[in-house]
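Hey Z.,

So I finally got round to the inosinic acid thing we talked about over coffee. Here's the setup:
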Amino acid sequence: MQLVFASNNKNKIKEIQQLVPSEIQIVSLEDIGCNVDIPETADTIEGNAILKAAYVTQNYGYPCFADDSGLEVDCLNGAPGVYSARYAGEPKDDTKNIEKLLAVLKEESNRKANFKTIICLNINGEQHLFTGIINGEIISEKRGTNGFGYDPIFVAEGYNKTFAELSIEEKSHISHRARAVKQLIEFLKLK
Ligand code: IMP
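And the result:
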């Protein structure tokens, strides 16, 4: 089965390709000739996933799924959340986002946080949503060089290494995205 994944983010495509069974062929936006930066104007993670999947289905007519993710910090009432990519402003900059978050949390003892992914799947005229969450905490300085985003300062519950110190394979077993993708795959298997 062929499914469009509404993304051109190479890190994510790599992660997802490791997770899906071979009978599901993932097609990127580039593969369908879509070179638009699909607007992510919703004010929730869920809303942005819905917008992105709808863009592909409406303009290209393919079955498609889109994901949207963010880091939710407990003591910041879930911020940066849907605004994770641009927490420190435009243009998006992972290093500045981390610096800002570490500064905001400097005196904070409750450092609990979670990554969340919502996947929106449009298939057979229906919309389905899947949620993946991983709990953990924000440490006080960066460690590791793998991954992207907030990986160098996030340690998952039960782990000592940051996401940036795990290999891509290790992270892709436990990540929020992996958890949402697993639900997507289970759903597709039942189809
Ligand atoms: P996206 O919706 O997957 O593009 O994620 C939005 C933003 O959330 C990213 O630009 C990162 O700042 C953050 N984020 C999402 N997933 C991850 C992850 O797996 N590791 C680190 N940061 C992430």
